Records
---
Amino acid sequence: MTDSASTPEVLGPPRPVLIEVNTKPVKIDGPTATGLQVKEAAIDQGVKIQLDFHLTMLGEDGKEDPVADNEIVALRYGQKFFAVDGDDNS
């Protein structure tokens, strides 16, 4: 058995994925990222959010699913995320 067979690279090397956070384009290394990494990338690219904001991901069914900071999500081109202040009562 070779080393590559014993340690397969399941998801491949990181690749940039263009997603949206609060309708703003954000480029992030994929194919996966944590909720915290999504927020950090958005902030680094000028999206006006903070790290303590609550993050949700728009699912294919149109529902918003919460994403925890330590939760790993699969990223796809155009994936929509929303980050809102946890104190937002609107």
Note: Helices lie at 3-6, 35-44.
---
Amino acid sequence: MRIHPRQRVRWQSERQRVGVGDAPLSVADYLRLCREDDDYELIDGVLVQRMAAQLPHEWLFQWMLRLVGGYVEARGLGIVLGSRTPVQINPYRVRLPDLLFVRTERLEVLTPQAITEPPDWVMEIRSAGERASDWVRLESDYRMLGVPEIWMVDLPRQRMRALQRSGDDYTVLERTEGRLESMAIDGFAVHVEHLLTETRPPVHTLLRELLEATP
């Protein structure tokens, strides 16, 4: 089994036996090896441990999960999942988006172990210390998969990229402020400033405003 050389990981013996020498791990291997509390992605057949989340990341994640999750649930639009849901990019590549949304009409793409087709919306949060090259590859993976809408919140650079698919290409919006409307989540919108600052309005206030503004 190949483990990314930057990581020092102790594996229990029964999990070591599942390894296949120097051959790349497949998605099936990944799903068999990794448990719910493991925080690994599969990158070109190699298990790579994600860096521990920093507090600004976790504060935004929790705030956004409650906001978008509450909105989607109240309107019956589908389901929002976060941080531990494997998304297959290709047979040797798996990502764990910070947040993802799947429309009600497409819930069949959810399997007990992973999502094998594009979610309708994903959001990733970059923390200080994450390499810019890894951030670029992450966006590239979601583009390759064909995710209709991708939100990339770059906390160190205090900006975000919203990518909305149109045909075979993406429209890219780079924002540091202003209201951003989702293409994939009907009626949902946020102010970019709320994503980039640690001082955010209460979720219940914004949720009420969003629901009152939609039929």
Note: Residues 1-20 have pLDDT under 50 and may be disordered.
